[in-house]
Amino acid sequence: MSEQRDRQVQQPGAGRPRDPEVDRSILQATRELLTETGYQKTTISAISRRAKVGTAAIYRRWATRESIVEDAIFGMQDVDLPTATGDLHADLLAWTRMFLDRIAEPATRSAIPGLLSAYHHHEGVYERLVGRAELPAREAMTELLASAAPERTAEATQVTANAVFDLLMSATTMRGLTVGLIDAESFCARTADALTVLAESGV
Question: How far is CA 12 from CA 18, 25, 75, 104, 141, in A?
Answer without folding.
Answer: 12, 18, 18, 31, 33
